[in-house]
Amino acid sequence: MSHQRPIKRYTAPDILAMKGDKPIVSLTAYHAHTARIIDPYVDFILVGDSLGMVMHGLPSTVPVTLDMMILHGAAVVRGSSRALVVVDMPFASYEESPEVAFRHCARVMKETGCGAIKLEGGVQMGETIAYLTKRGIPVMAHVGLTPQAVHVMGGFKTQGRERADWAAIEDDAKAVEQAGAFAIVLEGMAEPLAKKITKQVNIPTIGIGASAHCDGQILVLEDMLGLSPQVPKFVKEFGQIGAAIEGAVAHYAEDVRTRAFPTKDHVYSVKDKISAKSKNKLKSVGK
Ligand code: KIV
Separation of 277 CA from ligand 1 center, angstroms? Predict the structure, then answer.
């Protein structure tokens, strides 16, 4: 029997405790294999509702459903063992009332095994965040550019480019902190505003298109791998996986067409030695 203790998974309080300590590293993942690959390197994995656009080719995150989030969330939990898994609540699953939000968040936690959920919104979600956190649901908030509000914002627009807009976004960040969120994603906002908010709140800020001064950073995995056809300005491509896939597929197609694949290494031979099972079979049919 092994005496090795399993590596403990990061929890929401562990992420909260990292404020002011060391930068928090996070990425999105939507399926088990990528979760397994990134798990040793990140503190938390977000099963983002960006999966609607990235995996399912939807025009925005608005059509993403609870069932889609649960399917991908459970796969990511199965594929990982160390990082905290945070699952995004999709549009229209939590805004109506704290009670509706609790029912849907509880379903996500029960059916995926994730350790926290994320929802979009600031001041207007304060009551819901307080209701959820008092009932055992750790909440990561998300302010600034909130993609589920794309139709209200009139596009995926960077927030806080004019100083006159800062106070409302700062109020959002303070409201979610006060309500009990353990961290906040700051997405698509002017850099000095993200830096200011990071100083104002005592919970970690996780930047995406925000600031290097945030307490942590997150990117969509497919974007940073070079797999997405188009990426926003704030993405740094750390790999060229799209080009690698295309090269491998072109090589495969060529090998199939020229019959260079499969070779004898990829097919099964017939065994010369007759097994006892086969001998019995032959006996029973009188051969
Ligand atoms: O859905 C998502 O992937 C996100 C990140 C961009 C923060 O919310």
Answer: 56
Query: How far is it, in rounded angstroms, from Cα 242 to Cα 264?
Result: 30
Stretch (H or E) spanning 150: helix 150-153
pLDDT of 177: 98
Q: Report the nearest-CA residue for atom 8 of ligand 1.
A: 48
Q: Do residues 158 and 64 both lie within one domain?
A: yes
* Distance (Å, whole) CA 145 – CA 17: 25
Range of the domain at 251: 244-286
Residues 194 and 268 in one domain: no
Domain assignment present for residue 183? The answer is yes
Q: Half-sphere exposure of 276 toward its Cβ, with a 13 Å CA cutoff? A: 0
- Angle of helix 98-112 versus helix 66-79 axis, rounded to 10: 40
Whether a cis peptide bond, with omega within 30° of 0, leads into 262 is yes
pLDDT tens digits for range 128-184: 999 999 999 999 999 999 999 999 999 999 999 999 999 999 999 999 999 999 999
Q: Whose CA is nearest to atom 4 of ligand 1?
A: 48
